[in-house]
Amino acid sequence: MRHAKAEQDGPTDFERPLADRGRRDAVEAGSWLSAQGVEPAHALVSAALRTQQTWEAVASGAGWSLAPDLDRGLYAAGPETALDLVRLVPDAVTSLVVIGHNPTVGVLAQVLDDGSGDAAVAASMAGDFPTCAVAVFSYDGAWADLGEGTARLEAFHVGRA
Predict the structure, then answer these.
(1) Nearest in space to 71 (alpha carbons), one of 47, 42, 101, 105
(2) 3-state DSSP call for residue 59?
(3) Domains of the chain, with CATH numbers?
(4) Count of alpha carbons within 13 Å of 66, Cβ hemisphere only?
(5) Residue-wise burial string across 9-23, b where 16 or more C-beta atoms lie within 10 A, e elsewhere
(6) CA atoms of 25 and 6, how far apart (whole Å)
(7) pTM, whole model, 2 decimals?
(8) H/E segment holding residue 45
(9) Residue 86 — pLDDT band, cuts 50, 70, 90?
(10) Helix segments in the chain, DSSP class H
(11) Which long-range contacts (C-beta less than 8 Å, at least 24 apart) are formed by 81-84?
């Protein structure tokens, strides 16, 4: 998932908060995820303020009480580094939510897709990966083995309130 709409300014880019619209959109995305039956066992979230606030709003909308694993490295990570962070998730974790930044999460979603899912869903994700975009994948394997073209794209949604 890409973080929701943030304010243009903050003390630093890392400290930019969500805009009011972003909070509403993230709550809607959480409601949508809950309706899809997504129940994460782990949340890997960039430590930037806007991603933390996105997680809080998504979790609120979904009714989740899971504490996130805040990772400062995910803030500046490129797609390969973000994938490396996911590969470190313990295999006991059966469902994972990742909230990060673009272009990293958009590129990562594209490269993980094995192409076996609904072509219309893949087409909706192609190109732009806007704020509050959520790609839902299924994957049956060890996190350490996750790689290009190894996960099935099940759904794509852009949270908008």
Answers:
(1) 47
(2) helix
(3) 15-158 (3.40.50.1240)
(4) 24
(5) eeeeeeebbbbeebb
(6) 11
(7) 0.96
(8) strand 42-46
(9) very high
(10) 20-35, 49-62, 73-76, 79-87, 104-112, 119-125
(11) 82/108, 83/108, 83/111, 83/112, 83/146, 83/147
